[in-house]
Amino acid sequence: MTIRHLKTFIAVCECGGITKAAEALHVAQPAVSQTVAELEKYYGIVLFDRFGKKLVLTDCGKRLLAKAKETAASFDDFENLANSNLQNNRIRIGASLTIGKRFLPQILNTVAQKLPKIKPCAVIDNRAEIEEMLLAGDLDFAFLEGAAESPNLYAEEIAGDRLVAVCGAAFNVPGELKAGGLEKYPLLLREVGSASRRAFESAAGNIDIDILVESASNGALIACAENNLGIAVLPEALVDGYIATGRLKEIKITNCSFKRKYFAAYHKNKRFSPQQREAFDVCVSVFKQPEFLRGISNT
């Protein structure tokens, strides 16, 4: 049985007969008669006593009419809520730490300008936590440094950057090193599992490193480097301002390049609403702007 059967039954009761119900529903009279008959046959009940052309509700029909009205009203409430887009205009966006700090403000501003009816909310966390939120359905989509590890996530490459080795202005180290030369100095690195740490380990190879500070906070590592505690390997986008003002100096690693790629990711079973798809496309378009492509051209 469908909501159409219930609404037809209600219309017959409220209109006082098949003919007027058909007019109210804008359907043919036989269709109304057939719908009522289907309802009675399906449940094995009698809803109306027929006295000539007059229909009179049975006691069973009277009890079921009250329930039919409740059910139809609940269905109408559901439809109204679904059609109002009260939920569909809320977009949940995730970003790993570097993207979150450097790029998410521009992403949110662009959404506000181009899609004023969309209500975005954002979460910034390390890549592993953002992946977990995508898998749990707590985010609609996210932007990650490095490819997603879970096979249940779809990831689309959208941009990239590079990591640079930096230290404080007074830290005693040559301006150029091979990757193996990093073994001689204390290092300030992101935590194991982060996109930055994986990119560093992949590029540097199997070297014996001395980690002085390991942190999930890029800001903490920058502060340690400024205070001449060691060499940090961090995203260029986060440290270029420090390098330009002389607060940090870059150490060229001559035999490897710490390249990274940015990905837009979402669950493979995610079904985007039209609003979510539009918001996703707008967010991705931000990474196609020249200032965001700089990281790729420099690698």
Q: What attributes characterize this protein structure?
A:
299 residues; alpha/beta; Arc Repressor Mutant, subunit A; D-Maltodextrin-Binding Protein, domain 2; 10-stranded mixed beta sheet; two-stranded antiparallel ribbon; 12 helices; 12 strands; rod-shaped
Question: Outline of this structure?
Answer:
With 299 residues, the protein is α/β, with parallel strands linked by helices.
Descriptive account of the structure:
The chain has 299 residues and is of the alpha/beta class. The protein has 3 domains: 3-83, Winged helix-like DNA-binding domain superfamily/Winged helix DNA-binding domain (Arc Repressor Mutant, subunit A), CATH 1.10.10.10; 90-158 and 262-297, D-Maltodextrin-Binding Protein, domain 2 (3-Layer(aba) Sandwich), CATH 3.40.190.10; 161-259, D-Maltodextrin-Binding Protein, domain 2 (3-Layer(aba) Sandwich). 45% of the residues lie in helices and 25% in strands. The protein is built from 12 helices and 12 strands. A hairpin with a 2-residue loop joins strand 1 (48-51) and strand 2 (54-57). Helix 1 crosses helix 2 (18-25) and helix 2 (18-25) packs across helix 3 (29-43). It is rod-shaped, with a radius of gyration of 32 Å. 32% of the residues are buried. The model is unreliable at 293-299 (pLDDT under 50).
Which CATH-level-2 architecture of the largest domain? 3-Layer(aba) Sandwich
> Overall 3D geometry?
rod-shaped
The structure class reads alpha/beta
Instruction: Kindly state the percentage of residues in helix.
Output: 40-55%
Query: Taking Cα atoms only, what radius of gyration do you get, to the nearest Å?
Result: 32 Å
CATH superfamily of the largest domain: Periplasmic binding protein-like II
Major sheet description: 10 strands, mixed
